Amino acid sequence: MRPHSTAPATDAVQLTLQGPVAVIRLCRPAKRNALSDGLILAIRHTFENLPAGTRAAVIHGEGDHFCAGLDLSELQERDAGEGVHHSRMWHNALDQVQHGPVPVIAALHGAVVGGGLELASACHIRVADETTFFALPEGTRGIFVGGGGAVRIPKLIGAARMTDMMLTGRVYNAVDGERIGLAQYLVPTGTALEKALELAQRIATNAPLTNYALMHALPRIAEQPADHGFFTEALMASIAQAAPEAKERVRAFLEGKAAKVQKG
Q: Mean pLDDT for each consecutive 10-residue tract of the chain (264 residues)?
């Protein structure tokens, strides 16, 4: 029983830069960007090695779909121990997305299914266009989610909705997916990447320590008992506001040099 030793499929992921934003594209359109082990390891490698100066990232899929889930052609028979190692490999890779150095926005279109939804749920913001559909077919295929979906997806939509999706094979369209919390933004067909890039460029202008706190501290505070959460919040707030960049931004606001919040 050994940990998985597949090499990263570096040709399945393309990284480009738009200023401080890393744009990460899944490049298996003929497979609807289905997740092979090599692709999962390439995602991990990419997020572990983001270029210096990256302040935000966008992940999207080439072709007609974001990601249609696990590449079932690679599904292997494994004993229980091998299955645990395989699942933990996925956990480690997607943890680099959720708990890496920068906020990640997913630009969704077409299929966001199974492992594709697990990947999307590891991102911090999800933008869906009108072609997007969400599903968790593992329940009807005799398997169970293994890429962190059992933890992340109920935090977005609740355990009851996830249970329904897996028991019945229910598919949510883009409108209903946004309504229940699978996406935060719903945009016209073909514009998810444009919107995601717009958000990423805006996020990249935030103070890095504030972004880091939102990625790393806020989810943990939400898991803590209230008295622990309040204390963690106080610590994080004091650290963030002590940063030189934060002091400069507050000073600019007080001097009338920063934009005020406007009605949306």
A: 65 96 97 94 96 97 96 78 91 97 98 98 98 95 93 98 97 98 98 98 95 96 97 95 75 63 68
The boundaries of the domain holding residue 225 are: 208-254
Same domain, 149 and 223: no
CATH number of the domain bearing residue 217: 1.10.12.10
Q: Which of 62, 118, 248, 255 is catalytic?
A: 118
How many residues appear in the chain?
Answer: 264
Residues 23 and 113 in one domain: yes
CATH number at residue 110: 3.90.226.10
Q: Give the residue among 83, 198, 64 at the shortest CA–CA distance from 145.
A: 83
- 242 and 196 within one domain: no
Give the angle 106-107-108 at the CA atoms, nearest 5°: 105
CA angle 182/207/245 to nearest 5° reads 165
> At 243, which amino acid appears?
A
Judge whether 93 and 40 are in contact, CB under 8 Å: yes
Question: Which residue in 130, 138, 198, 248 is the catalytic one?
Answer: 138
State yes or no: is 118 an active-site residue. yes
Active site residue 194: no
What would the 3-class secondary structure string for 44-56 be?
A: HHHHHCCCCCCCE
CA–CA gap between residue 120 and residue 31 (Å, rounded): 18
